[in-house]
Every structure is written in structure tokens, then in C-alpha cells.
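So, could you explain the following?
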Amino acid sequence: MHDDDERWRPSREGRAYVEAAIRNRAFGLVYQPIVHLDTGSLSGVEVLCRPYDGRRPDVWFAQCREQGLAAAMDFAIVEMALEQIDDQPPDNCYLSMNLSLATLTESCRLVELLRPALARRQLVVELTEHVVVGDYGVVERDLRPLREAGVLLAVDDAGAGYSSFRHVLRLRPDIIKLDRSITDSIDRDQARRALAMALVIFAGQFGASVVAEGIETEAELLALRSVGISRGQGYWLARPQHLPLAPLDYHPVPYLELVQNAAALASHIPVEPTADHLPDATVAVVAHGLLSSLASVTSAVTLLSETDGRVAIEQHRALCGAIQRQIAHVSGVLSDLVRGLPPETIRALDEIATPSA
């Protein structure tokens, strides 16, 4: 099927156009690698649909939903992906496919379609943040045949909106995909790092893993690894591509080296206000912020102690990263406060703080 096929191209609106496009398979598939950031190995691939008529995929899928043909489109994509399974990466890599809620209502049919492939590789279905869930009980019921068959569940676009966190809380997915809006400039934004770190810690509590989407720079990748995220996808790692996939051109920085550089990353966190312009009236505000940081450290240490050595490596790294960053923040603020004191006061404080022989 080509762009100029007159059997479906003349009218771009209406149900007949969508039906013809699905029937004639007027689309192609590309696959984007999902990479293990600590090892550089291929963890999985996400299958993505590209309509031949040149429209953006989100526009195309919106029309499918409007015409009540979202499930038909999903099944066509799944069938094509399964036909291409021999050309996909090795069997130890999982295959992830996006599905609409309408498709989940036919989960028993979907399980039968997927069953032969499940004997060869792990399959994942993704639900996006943009899906509006009216009744989570119904969704959980529809997902049950898939999960019982061994299909994993991923929640896409986590962090892009409130509903994504509702998906995570209610559906307890196996994989949480961190939205590009959080990944973007995460190396320069403490709030984004804190949110990503919290998500890793939360995911570890029920055995889920976190995949960062939209990684476009090495700095973003290093920051993501420093907060405990070990899997990701994005243009920096590999672009969506036709089969067969090109070899990965990613060589990870050793984790120990990453830990050694964590202090340098933390030093970029802005500390305000500094002692140079700190009025007495704001001391209580600064003290409150420091107490909050210490409370975060206490919570992280408590979680580590409660795991008794059974914590997953991603969660362990996230917790350690949380402790390191909060300590760096407290140290920076206290250093600024001390810097404004008279020299004789600092000497007196040093004498008090130094244990006697």
C-alpha cells in the first residue's frame, strides 16, 4: 500500500476512509529501542504506527477513536507486529504495544491472538495518560485475562497529568513510563529530579520498573541514572526505525563514576536566599526548609532499613540519590548562613563543634 493509493486516499474524513485505511493496511510500523542504561543492552522495543497519508499519529488515532474504530486499528497493528516478529530483536527483549480502552474490552480475543508470541517473548501493553478512565473496576476486569496470560502492563506518559498518577495508583502497572515533560532538562531542574526519584521509590514498593521516555541529551541520561532510573528510550539512545534494528551505539558511563560525579551535579542546585541578603525575618523559613530536607533523609533511611537488604537496585539507587541530594542541599544552605557570620563567631562555633581530646 502506497501514499497515492486511490482506493482510500480521496476522502480523508469519515468512517469509510478509516475503514479503508485499516483494511488495506495503509500504515507502516517502526520500532524504538528501550535501552538498559546501566549496561547498554537492549531491554525491549516499542512498536509505533506511521500512517501512510503523512498525518501525525496522534491525529490519525484521534480520528480512529472518533469513528469508533480504535480497537480495529489496534488489532491491525498487533497483527502486523506479530507477522514481523521473526525480524524483531532477540527473544530476550520485550515487545511493547499501545492499546486503547476499547481494545481492552476484547481482551479475550487479544489473548488468543497474542498467545503464540507469548511463548517466544515477553509482551507489554501500554495505556497512555491521555486515556480517560471512567471506571477502573471495569478496566481491571478487562485487563485480567491479559495479565493472567503473562502480558505485562505499562502506564505511559506518567507525570504528564493527574490522570497518569491515578492510572499508576489504581492499576499498579509492571512498568511506569516517565513522560518527556519530566525528562526534558532534568539535569538542570531539581524539581524534575525529585519527582523522578520519588516515582522510582514508589514503583519499587510494588515491584514496578521505570522507563524514562524522550531522552535527548547525555546530561539528561546521566541525571536519570543518578536518580535510580535504569531503562530509557529517546533520540539520544536510538530513533524509531524499520526492521532490522541497527546496533545500539551507546556505551554507559560506569555507575561508580556516575556516583563520584553526583556531588558536582548537586552543586548546581540553586540555594536561595544566601546569607549575603538574608534578613532575620526569613531565618524561620530557611530553617523550615532544612527541616523538610532532613525529614526526606530520615524517610529515605527508614525505607532502606525496612527493606533489610531486599530492595531492588533501582530503588536502592533512588534512595541513596535522595539522601545525597538532600545532604548537599542542607550543606549548601548552612554554608551560606555561616559565611555571613563574623570570623570570631565562626572560630567559637568550630571550638564548640570540635570534640575535646
